[in-house]
Amino acid sequence: MLKIWSMKQKQQQDEAAATGGAKKKKVTAAQLRVQKDLSELSLGSTMKTNFPNPDDILNFTLTIEPDEGMYKGGRFIFDFKINQNFPHDPPKVKCTQKIYHPNIDLEGNVCLNILREDWKPVLNLNAVIVGLQFLFLEPNASDPLNKDAAEDLKANREGFKRNVRLSLGGGNVGKQTFDRVLK
Amino acid sequence: MDEATGTGLPNRPGAQRMRWKYLDNILTRHGPFTDPDWEPGEAAIEGLARAKLLGAGGLGCEILKNLALSGFQDIHVIDMDTIDVSNLNRQFLFRQADVGKYKAEVAAKFVEKRVKGVKITPYCGKIQDKDEEYYKQFAIIVCGLDSIEARRWINATLVGMVDDQDPDSMKPLIDGGTEGFKGQARVIFPTMTSCIECQLDMHAPRAAVPLCTLATIPRQPQHCIEWAHIIAWEEERKDITLDNDDPEHITWLYQKALTRAQEFNIPGVTYSMTQGVVKNIIPAIASTNAIVAASCCNEAFKLATSTNPFLGFPGTDNYMMYTGDESIYTYTFQHMKKSDCPVCGDDNIARPLQVDSDFTLQEFLDSLAERPEAQLKKPSIRSQEKSLYYQFPPDLREQTRPNLSKKLYELVQNGEEVVITDPAFPLTFKYKLVFK
């Protein structure tokens, strides 16, 4: 044991400095990684973040305003909850509005592979927001979370587009009434 | 070993020392692998007796038993759980009558009774309840934790405790873990060798099924349970926080899953499967636990006594993986330290930095730009509690901008750790701000 310590002393001869008696509060590994990820976000002109408590960077919302595709004109708000196990665990992402989308259910759950089965710690928050943005450009009928919307999309793309427009304005599609999300 | 050696030891009557007859053979003789500088005999035995050890977690029974029977005499044990009837098959320190009691307490009492002369101090709670002061008292920490989160916590705590001026501040961490027929034992010298954070990629993430499969085409009983767990609960009982240990909650999920399974003609949903899926229980196999715990405790013994080379000596192998899934295979290797590890990487050990507490945050950041090792262009900075200043994203910049004109003493405490990142560098800089 003592041998190991003398190895360490050889390994680094750092300057000495006595620190104050304050109890050390350490930045957690999750906070650190989120800080890095945030600085690398490319939000572009269609996305912005909102931190209700700026000191807490693990909880925030992301607003997406697609500037092309059938969801153009909508304003979609996603809630991000990141736990201390990040990046081992993926962030928990939910849509806060009730919207008509084949890959997002009426509760706001999102079917995006990298948020669940394909998440890897090497992925970062930017990968997640790119994935979310993509869902609005290319809704995917083969991995449905909202089965009715997926079937509409498969059966009749033009009809689906009309449904999207209706739902964005807070209208009904089938038996469901959707939240008005136009900006 | 003859009786004379036994009686010669202080405070230990010969008859009692006889218990350690074979152990003493190792402690009182040079062997082929002992370090030439090592002194066998009383010093080694005393070293073992004085080594204060901390054991924690799910492999606890095995570890505690092994440590006590290896001659360690001052052992502390932490576990937050109470005894469940399902533990009794492998956690042999517990009996039916103990169900509901704290594991740490019952285990400590049991082992103290069986192994004369050992002192075991239980703590019933989380390892996170304790601070650096507490962990400082031990010679070695042995962990058999059941979560990655707890491992990362103890790892970061022990790395953060290392003080270059104090050899006693570096506590070797021995970590054991099992999952079914697989397991690992590893030894970590915080800041010197690859740490748990460096080795995070060794943990396979939990296998997950795509949400859309759960929502639309379940194929297995587990899919129906996950559906009930993730989707149905949120839809119908949003306002109630799911408690995995509440039988009413599990029953609700079980009923939901069962109904769904019937709709899709999937047999096999049971109450205990529901419990297993929801709590992510991977069946613990008693003998895997025994193998891994034994390996951990052997390393603890060698570390404490220097009788033999141990796993994890800097520059040598530090990780033993064991798998019994398909026949049997073990492999021991050296997991390398990661220079960019967010916990122990060279740039991530908080360096003390003398600062003028009357500086504004802006002045401080400007001064960093001039430091040769930093030369930061667009630094973002935070402490554990506060986002001090963020360059990005824009709304966070707006919200933290007022801090720039505040004085350092208004924002941080003397000795507090801050983390600085800059998109121009892949590194992070950690400083302990020491007021001049």
Automatic annotation (TrEMBL), chain A:
Residues 29-173 form the UBC core domain. The keyword 4Fe-4S does not apply. Keywords: ATP-binding, Nucleotide-binding, Transferase, Ubl conjugation pathway. The active site is at residue 111. It is an enzyme of class 2 (transferase). It comes from Clohesyomyces aquaticus. Pathway: Protein modification; protein neddylation. SMART domains: UBCc. This is NEDD8-conjugating enzyme UBC12. CDD domains: UBCc_UBE2F_UBE2M.
UniProtKB/TrEMBL annotation, chain B:
It comes from Clohesyomyces aquaticus. Its EC number is 6.2.1.64. One of its GO terms (biological process) is protein neddylation. The keyword ATP-binding applies. Catalytic subunit of the dimeric E1 enzyme, which activates NEDD8. The keyword Endoplasmic reticulum does not apply. Pathway: Protein modification; protein neddylation. It is an enzyme of class 6 (ligase). This is NEDD8-activating enzyme E1 catalytic subunit. Residues 353-436 form the E2 binding domain. GO terms for cellular component: cytoplasm; nucleus. Coiled coil: none annotated. It holds the Pfam family ThiF. GO terms for molecular function: ATP binding; NEDD8 activating enzyme activity. InterPro entries: E2-binding, ThiF/MoeB/HesA, ThiF_NAD_FAD-bd, Ub_act_enz_dom_a_sf, Uba3_N, Ubiquitin-activating_enz. It catalyses: ATP + [NEDD8 protein] + [E1 NEDD8-activating enzyme]-L-cysteine = AMP + diphosphate + [E1 NEDD8-activating enzyme]-S-[NEDD8 protein]-yl-L-cysteine. Belongs to the ubiquitin-activating E1 family. UBA3 subfamily. Keywords: ATP-binding, Ligase, Nucleotide-binding, Ubl conjugation pathway.
